[in-house]
Amino acid sequence: MNRGGSSKVVQHNHSTMPQGDQDRDFWQREPTLYTVKGMAILDNDGNRILAKYYDKNLFPTPKDQKMFEKNLFSKTHRANAEIIMLDGLTCIYKSNVDLFFYVMGLSHENELILMSVLNCLYDSVSQILRKNVEKRAVLDSLDIVMLAMDEICDGGIILDADASSVVQRVALRTDDIPLGEQTVAQVLQSAKEQLKWSLLK
Protein backbone atom coordinates (compact mmCIF):
# COMPACT_ATOMS: atom_id res chain seq x y z
CA MET A 1 0.00 0.00 0.00
CA ASN A 2 1.30 3.41 -0.92
CA ARG A 3 1.54 5.54 2.21
CA GLY A 4 2.31 8.63 0.21
CA GLY A 5 -1.35 9.24 -0.52
CA SER A 6 -1.09 8.47 -4.23
CA SER A 7 -3.26 5.37 -4.15
CA LYS A 8 -6.04 5.09 -6.70
CA VAL A 9 -9.12 7.19 -6.04
CA VAL A 10 -12.56 6.51 -7.45
CA GLN A 11 -13.12 9.69 -9.44
CA HIS A 12 -16.90 9.96 -9.17
CA ASN A 13 -16.92 13.59 -10.26
CA HIS A 14 -13.83 13.43 -12.50
CA SER A 15 -12.03 15.97 -10.31
CA THR A 16 -8.48 15.56 -9.09
CA MET A 17 -7.30 15.14 -5.55
CA PRO A 18 -6.96 18.53 -3.82
CA GLN A 19 -3.42 19.46 -2.86
CA GLY A 20 -1.81 21.94 -0.50
CA ASP A 21 -3.48 25.32 -0.21
CA GLN A 22 -6.31 24.20 -2.48
CA ASP A 23 -7.76 21.86 0.16
CA ARG A 24 -10.00 24.39 1.90
CA ASP A 25 -11.29 25.87 -1.37
CA PHE A 26 -12.01 22.37 -2.62
CA TRP A 27 -14.09 21.40 0.39
CA GLN A 28 -15.96 24.70 0.57
CA ARG A 29 -16.79 24.80 -3.13
CA GLU A 30 -19.23 21.89 -3.16
CA PRO A 31 -19.92 18.50 -1.56
CA THR A 32 -18.03 15.64 -3.16
CA LEU A 33 -18.74 11.99 -3.67
CA TYR A 34 -15.67 10.90 -1.80
CA THR A 35 -16.94 8.51 0.84
CA VAL A 36 -16.13 6.96 4.18
CA LYS A 37 -17.60 3.78 5.61
CA GLY A 38 -17.67 4.80 9.23
CA MET A 39 -16.47 7.07 12.03
CA ALA A 40 -16.03 6.07 15.66
CA ILE A 41 -14.85 7.42 18.98
CA LEU A 42 -13.78 4.80 21.54
CA ASP A 43 -12.49 5.20 25.09
CA ASN A 44 -9.14 3.86 26.27
CA ASP A 45 -10.73 0.53 27.16
CA GLY A 46 -12.10 0.09 23.65
CA ASN A 47 -15.70 0.87 24.61
CA ARG A 48 -17.82 2.83 22.17
CA ILE A 49 -18.49 6.48 22.95
CA LEU A 50 -20.03 7.24 19.58
CA ALA A 51 -19.99 5.53 16.19
CA LYS A 52 -21.67 5.88 12.83
CA TYR A 53 -21.54 3.33 10.03
CA TYR A 54 -22.74 4.11 6.54
CA ASP A 55 -22.75 0.70 4.83
CA LYS A 56 -25.15 -1.85 6.28
CA ASN A 57 -23.59 -4.57 4.16
CA LEU A 58 -20.29 -4.25 6.00
CA PHE A 59 -21.61 -4.41 9.55
CA PRO A 60 -25.32 -5.28 9.38
CA THR A 61 -25.94 -5.59 13.12
CA PRO A 62 -24.82 -3.74 16.27
CA LYS A 63 -23.10 -6.96 17.32
CA ASP A 64 -21.03 -6.95 14.11
CA GLN A 65 -20.11 -3.33 14.72
CA LYS A 66 -19.01 -3.99 18.29
CA MET A 67 -16.91 -6.97 17.20
CA PHE A 68 -15.20 -4.82 14.58
CA GLU A 69 -14.56 -2.06 17.12
CA LYS A 70 -13.10 -4.52 19.61
CA ASN A 71 -10.76 -5.91 16.95
CA LEU A 72 -9.88 -2.42 15.74
CA PHE A 73 -9.02 -1.22 19.22
CA SER A 74 -6.93 -4.29 20.00
CA LYS A 75 -4.78 -3.61 16.93
CA THR A 76 -4.39 0.13 17.43
CA HIS A 77 -4.30 1.02 21.13
CA ARG A 78 -0.62 0.13 21.50
CA ALA A 79 0.49 0.99 17.98
CA ASN A 80 2.37 4.11 16.96
CA ALA A 81 1.09 4.13 13.39
CA GLU A 82 -1.79 6.26 12.14
CA ILE A 83 -3.19 3.78 9.65
CA ILE A 84 -3.97 0.07 9.47
CA MET A 85 -5.82 -2.26 7.13
CA LEU A 86 -8.55 -4.30 8.80
CA ASP A 87 -11.34 -6.41 7.29
CA GLY A 88 -10.78 -4.85 3.89
CA LEU A 89 -10.97 -1.31 5.26
CA THR A 90 -8.37 1.42 5.55
CA CYS A 91 -8.60 2.70 9.12
CA ILE A 92 -7.07 6.08 9.99
CA TYR A 93 -6.85 6.93 13.69
CA LYS A 94 -5.45 9.17 16.37
CA SER A 95 -5.63 9.18 20.16
CA ASN A 96 -5.77 11.85 22.84
CA VAL A 97 -5.78 11.36 26.62
CA ASP A 98 -8.47 8.66 27.02
CA LEU A 99 -10.07 8.71 23.57
CA PHE A 100 -9.41 7.12 20.18
CA PHE A 101 -10.80 8.66 16.98
CA TYR A 102 -11.26 6.50 13.88
CA VAL A 103 -12.31 7.04 10.26
CA MET A 104 -12.77 4.00 8.03
CA GLY A 105 -12.88 3.79 4.24
CA LEU A 106 -12.57 1.16 1.54
CA SER A 107 -9.04 0.05 0.75
CA HIS A 108 -8.99 1.95 -2.55
CA GLU A 109 -9.97 5.29 -1.01
CA ASN A 110 -7.19 7.86 -0.90
CA GLU A 111 -5.57 7.96 2.53
CA LEU A 112 -5.24 11.76 2.41
CA ILE A 113 -9.00 12.09 2.03
CA LEU A 114 -9.59 9.85 5.05
CA MET A 115 -6.95 11.71 7.05
CA SER A 116 -8.59 15.05 6.26
CA VAL A 117 -11.90 13.72 7.60
CA LEU A 118 -10.24 12.41 10.76
CA ASN A 119 -8.51 15.73 11.38
CA CYS A 120 -11.77 17.59 10.80
CA LEU A 121 -13.61 15.34 13.27
CA TYR A 122 -10.93 15.72 15.93
CA ASP A 123 -10.50 19.47 15.44
CA SER A 124 -14.27 20.05 15.45
CA VAL A 125 -14.63 18.17 18.74
CA SER A 126 -11.65 20.06 20.14
CA GLN A 127 -13.19 23.43 19.26
CA ILE A 128 -16.61 22.47 20.61
CA LEU A 129 -15.12 21.23 23.89
CA ARG A 130 -12.68 24.14 24.22
CA LYS A 131 -9.72 21.80 23.64
CA ASN A 132 -10.83 19.57 26.52
CA VAL A 133 -10.86 16.43 24.38
CA GLU A 134 -11.53 13.84 27.08
CA LYS A 135 -14.09 11.11 27.62
CA ARG A 136 -16.15 12.91 30.24
CA ALA A 137 -16.38 16.11 28.18
CA VAL A 138 -17.45 14.19 25.08
CA LEU A 139 -20.10 12.28 27.03
CA ASP A 140 -21.43 15.55 28.46
CA SER A 141 -21.79 16.97 24.93
CA LEU A 142 -22.62 13.82 22.98
CA ASP A 143 -25.48 15.43 21.03
CA ILE A 144 -23.19 18.18 19.79
CA VAL A 145 -20.43 15.78 18.78
CA MET A 146 -23.03 13.74 16.90
CA LEU A 147 -24.17 16.86 15.06
CA ALA A 148 -20.56 17.55 14.09
CA MET A 149 -20.30 14.06 12.62
CA ASP A 150 -23.48 14.69 10.63
CA GLU A 151 -22.08 17.96 9.28
CA ILE A 152 -18.88 16.25 8.16
CA CYS A 153 -20.50 13.24 6.55
CA ASP A 154 -24.01 12.45 5.31
CA GLY A 155 -24.73 8.82 4.54
CA GLY A 156 -21.02 8.25 4.02
CA ILE A 157 -20.59 11.13 1.56
CA ILE A 158 -18.05 13.68 2.77
CA LEU A 159 -19.67 17.11 2.98
CA ASP A 160 -16.94 19.14 4.63
CA ALA A 161 -13.45 18.71 6.03
CA ASP A 162 -12.96 22.19 7.46
CA ALA A 163 -13.46 22.18 11.22
CA SER A 164 -14.30 25.89 11.53
CA SER A 165 -17.20 25.72 9.08
CA VAL A 166 -18.45 22.49 10.67
CA VAL A 167 -18.51 24.11 14.13
CA GLN A 168 -20.29 27.18 12.77
CA ARG A 169 -23.07 25.06 11.25
CA VAL A 170 -23.36 22.98 14.41
CA ALA A 171 -23.86 26.20 16.39
CA LEU A 172 -26.75 27.19 14.15
CA ARG A 173 -28.47 23.86 14.74
CA THR A 174 -28.31 23.79 18.55
CA ASP A 175 -31.06 26.26 19.49
CA ASP A 176 -33.35 23.55 20.89
CA ILE A 177 -30.72 21.24 22.37
CA PRO A 178 -29.82 21.62 26.07
CA LEU A 179 -26.09 22.12 26.42
CA GLY A 180 -23.64 22.63 29.21
CA GLU A 181 -22.68 26.25 29.78
CA GLN A 182 -19.11 25.83 28.59
CA THR A 183 -20.17 24.07 25.41
CA VAL A 184 -22.70 26.77 24.63
CA ALA A 185 -20.08 29.46 25.11
CA GLN A 186 -17.62 27.72 22.82
CA VAL A 187 -20.06 26.79 20.08
CA LEU A 188 -21.72 30.19 19.97
CA GLN A 189 -18.35 31.92 19.96
CA SER A 190 -17.46 30.12 16.73
CA ALA A 191 -20.56 31.44 14.95
CA LYS A 192 -21.30 34.73 16.69
CA GLU A 193 -22.06 36.73 13.57
CA GLN A 194 -24.24 34.03 12.01
CA LEU A 195 -26.26 33.67 15.20
CA LYS A 196 -26.67 37.43 15.54
CA TRP A 197 -28.17 37.74 12.09
CA SER A 198 -30.39 34.69 12.53
CA LEU A 199 -31.81 36.15 15.74
CA LEU A 200 -32.57 39.46 14.03
CA LYS A 201 -34.61 37.83 11.29
Number of helices: 8
Helical content, roughly? 40-55%
Radius of gyration: 17 Å
Q: In terms of per-residue confidence, which ranges show pLDDT below 50 for 5 or more consecutive residues?
A: 1-22, 26-31, 176-182
Mean pLDDT: 78
Sheet with most strands = 5 strands, antiparallel
Task: State the order of secondary-structure elements, H for helix, E for strand.
Answer: HEEHEEEHHHEEHHH
- Give the percentage of residues in beta strands: 15-25%
| β-strand number | 7
Which structural class fits the helix and strand makeup?
alpha+beta
Describe the structure.
The protein is α+β, with helices and mostly antiparallel strands and 201 residues long. Helices cover 43% and strands 18% of the residues. Helix 3 packs across helix 6. The N and C termini lie far apart (53 Å).
